[in-house]
Description:
Layout: E1 9-16, E2 37-45, E3 51-58, H1 69-75, H2 79-83, H3 88-99, E4 107-110, H4 114-126, E5 137-139, H5 140-148, H6 156-163
Parallel strand pairs: 1-4, 4-5
Antiparallel strand pairs: 1-2, 2-3
Amino acid sequence: MTSAYETPVLVVDLEATCWERRLAPSGERQSTHNMEIIEFGCALATRDGELLDSQSFLVRPTQNPVLSEFCKSLTSIQQSMVDAAPVFSEACHLINVWLGQPHEDFLWCSWGNYDRLHIQADVEKHRVFPSLMNYPHLNLKRLWRRTTRQKRKNGMVRLLPFMDWALEAVESQ
């Protein structure tokens, strides 16, 4: 029998369509309702932080299919990459296949609540969801702030030196 401590956790980091000055092409302020997920960055790790597997799942946006120059610069995701990517429902299926049948003690986490809220918004739009949404979500930013007694809201980059870790990706925000 697998204990909760032995059950891997899934760390998720999303990228989404975005625009300079946070204004969508429609003129609306950008929000999870007009932004679309363009990448699910996923890493399975032990609860001690050992990386077991990682996968990037690109998603083709349909509401605003052309990425802004700002978005391409911020995320390093190019138009040709999302043009060749599956739509949200197909990407969810690919994530579910990759994830398999998680243990009942499985949980997923992200740095803050943005990723969870954006997945929920896209689930409402597309009426399909990745199976990770069936499991509890852990807000790593909140946990880190509480356990280190950090008062300010800090981005992930401030965590890295604290933990003596190096950045292995491009930070988007």
